[in-house]
Design a protein that fits this description.
Layout (H helix, E strand, L loop, with lengths): L8 E5 L6 H12 L2 E4 L1 H13 L7 H10 L2 E5 L8 E5 L2 E2 L7 H11 L2 H15 L4 E5 L2 H5 L5 E6 L2 H14 L6 H17 L12 E4 L5 H10 L3
Parallel strand pairs: 1-6, 1-7, 2-6, 7-8
Antiparallel strand pairs: 3-4, 4-5
Bound molecules: cytidine-5'-diphosphate (CDP).
Length: 227
């Protein structure tokens, strides 16, 4: 930990739609750190595979794709609700990675050892530079176990589905709560039962249960942990 006691590498993990990106982005802004949402890398590979007609069950093909694709995650260039830009071969695919089809397939792709190995190496390189808030499923456990501060953000599936529903409606989209809930539960199931880097809180993580908390309250708690 640096001399002034502010943690330099901050890892935030947790299940789908637990508010990691919202809190991570605010924390990064408050500290002047880089915000890095690792989920977008798994989403980018999934979107690319679907786009190219590659079967998401083809582990070898997905691994090859993850190994050769250059994914760039950059600070948001537009104020359209995005937390960051996602670029593949120079093309802005930020909103494509949020499509329903990507949501439904990303956990299958993220369970592949080769895909994880390719992407987490890139994540680790960026994280080790410090002054970073990195968000995902396995940051505190696998990608950056040396992180100075680890937060595990949790909430019930119902609350998380409700938040995701509101988020889509606020953007003027169409959404079905029951369908979102079903997908959130299914993604959590795959993410927490996979063999490689399953979703779980690191032993030294601070768990924040956000069910009864507003986004502001979660942010204040997270910020207090950085002081
Ligand atoms: O934002 P949301 O919580 O819906 O998901 P995300 O963070 O964008 O992650 C999408 C998917 O990528 C997750 O459901 C995981 O399957 C996978 N993922 C992962 O395996 N490891 C990470 N470090 C980040 C995401």
């Amino acid at each position: 930990m640096p001399v002034n006691n502010t943690p330099s590498i901050i890892a935030i993990d947790g299940p789908a739609a637990s508010g990691k990106s919202t809190i991570g982005l605010r924390l990064a802004k408050a500290l002047g750190y880089l915000f890095f949402d690792t989920g977008v890398m798994y989403r980018a590979i999934t979107w690319l595979a679907l786009q190219r007609g590659i079967d998401v069950r083809d582990e070898a093909a997905l691994t090859a794709l993850a190994e050769k694709t250059q994914i760039d995650v950059a600070p948001a260039s537009k104020s359209d609700g995005r937390a960051c830009d996602v670029l593949v071969d120079g093309q802005d695919i930020t909103w494509e990675t949020r499509r329903r089809k990507v949501d439904a397939n990303v956990s299958i792709v993220a369970a592949y050892r080769g895909v994880r190995s390719a992407l987490s190496q890139q994540q680790r390189r960026i994280g080790q530079r410090g002054h970073v808030v990195m968000v995902g499923r396995d940051i505190g456990t696998v990608v950056l176990p040396e992180a100075d501060l680890k937060i595990y953000l949790d909430a019930t599936a119902e609350e998380r589905a409700r938040r995701r529903y509101d988020e889509i409606m606020d953007r003027g989209g169409k959404a079905n709560y029951d369908e979102i809930l079903e997908r959130v539960i299914e993604r959590d199931r795959i993410d927490s039962t996979r063999d490689v880097a399953p979703l779980k809180a690191a032993e030294d993580a601070v768990v924040i249960d956000s069910d009864q908390l507003t986004a502001d309250e979660v942010f204040e708690r997270a910020l207090a942990l950085c002081k």
